[in-house]
Amino acid sequence: MARLAQLRELYLWRTRVSDDGLQKLKSLQRLQVLNLWDTAATDRTLKQLLPQLPALQHVYLGSSPNPLTVFYSGDWELPVSTVSSAAIARLRSECPGLEVVFWQGEDNAAAPADGQSASAATVASVFAAAGDDVARRPAATDWPGFLGPAGDGHSSESLPQRDWQQHPPRLLWKRRTGEGYSAPSVAGDRLIYTDRQKNVERIVCVSAPTGQTIWQQHVRASYQDALGYGDGPRATPLIDGQRVYSVTADGILDCRQLHSGELLWRRNLSSDFAVTGNLYGVGASPFVYGNLLLLVVGGRERNAVPAAAGVVAFDKHTGHTVYSTGDVQASYASVRVIDAHDPPLGVAFAREGLLVFDALTGRQRHQIPWAAKVSGCVNAVTPVISGSEVFVSEAYGPGSILLRFEDENFDVVWADQKRSRRRVLRAHWATPLLYDGHLYACSGRHSAQGELRCINWETGFVEWRHQQRCLSSLCGIDGCLINVTEYGQVELIVASAESFQLLSRFTPGPDGQPARPDGERLLKFPVWAAPVVSNGRLFLRSSDSLVGFQIR
Q1: pLDDT tens across 117-167, in order?
Q2: Angle at 27 between CA 24 and CA 33, to 5 degrees
Q3: String of DSSP letters for 354-406
């Protein structure tokens, strides 16, 4: 019982627990997440149990209208919740800090705008997609990790105001940070970022609406950039339910509680795996697939029979190694999964090229060379996936390639020619965006070569190019592209394959208002972190500051 009292998350959906049985949960004083979907919860549960759980932050209540049609078990009917809407309203009023998600028994086509209830059809799709991780999937407006909720750089939010020259986004807050190029991650009203101050790396949790600190934790840091590009973290933290995963430039992988920052488990990648040193430190961001945490490590296991550990799959709950695969060195790109393939394939753009493996078992399928034959080359672009096709690009040598995977084989759809001086795209560190059959990306190894390009996905034909003489990162939203340059200028562009169409641009000054042409800028060079959109807010990170804007 002492161990049960330490529980922080309890998932009882689809169980035949009675209301009297639920009352026995009062001893779980550290419980933070409680899922009671399709249980026999009643108004009494809300009145006598939930207020007795002081640490509770999230509760999931309600029932689908016909449980057997949504969750067919074959031999027994699921319990039906009798919680009333009035009781839910009272609970929300009495416990304003508690997130209450209430699934009503009405099979509506869509959930209400406040996101607090949803249709039975939506419930079914969530369970089918998430399995045992239901209730931990991010909301549609969250930005829980590198490149957003789907890992493709797109936001599902609307953008009602598009004239940013006359009506620029309103500055909500700004705060100085230590060194670092990692983008922030957002879940609800909590934003997580990492930075470096002197001999420690910090992971910091702040209020997304206000920028005020909620908690911060430290990890000792010793990494020194050999070329003077800064010693701060490169990897974007990942929020998965009530857990936060972060990776330091030295290779310390931590899992912490989102609520408090408490350390749950830690892996030292350098000591646990024989990792070959990387020129710019550890920069690959973690990626969650089911119960696996996938990370490009670039090492070998330290045991009697060393095994390749180019990519390592950790149990996201415990940190234990599930499998390791690929005799490749680490890059700065995040792992992605081709779900359209059976079985699903993991793809990692490693230092030598593309590593392809079974996402669930780690069995290696392919290793496709795609890297420049020069010292200091960088493979940093996360693979872009559409169906069973995968696109990767780099800026130092071979350029870009599109591959199609079927069964045990793959085909090259198109690729830059080795002996040609022209390249379809040279993406350096900013991952391209795929929208309506076209890629939008910044091309160029150096700032002077930087230009935006639109490329036909299936043919590799360059539809248009726009010289901007700087490098930049993109975020897709509501048919538009937010383009943030490394010099702190923000542009809004139409996502159109016909031509480059600028809607508006502004360069925020220290007060958030447009800066004078020769005036001080809010975001100082280099602005290399990808832009983040969450809950109507735009978050931008420079090398020494983090700012939040209201865009909706």
Answers
A1: 333 333 333 333 333 343 344 555 899 999 999 999 999 999 999 999 889
A2: 90
A3: EEEEETTT--EEEEEE---SSTT----PPPEEETTEEEEE-SSSS-EEEEEEE
Q: Number of helices and strands (H, E) in the chain?
A: 6, 37
pLDDT tens readout for residues 198-245? 999 999 999 999 999 999 999 999 988 878 788 899 999 999 999 999
Quickly count: other Cβ atoms within 10 Å of residue 402's Cβ: 23
Both structure tokens of 232: 């701060």
Which amino acid appears at position 103 of this protein?
W
d(CA 21, CA 55): 20
Q: Which residue has 């998430």 as its token pair? A: 130
**Which residues are CB-contacts of 497 (< 8 A; sequence separation ≥ 6)?**
436, 437, 438, 454, 456, 463, 464
CA angle 40, 46, 49 (to 5 degrees): 90
pTM > 0.85: yes or no: no
Bridge-partner residues for 347, per DSSP?
A: 336, 356
> What is the rounded distance in angstroms from the CA atom of residue 345 to the CA atom of residue 356?
7
Query: Phi and psi for 302 in degrees, rounded to 5?
Result: -95, 90
Supply the DSSP symbol for 469. Answer: S
AA identity, residue 341 = H
CA-based torsion, 170, 491, 143, 160: positive or negative: positive
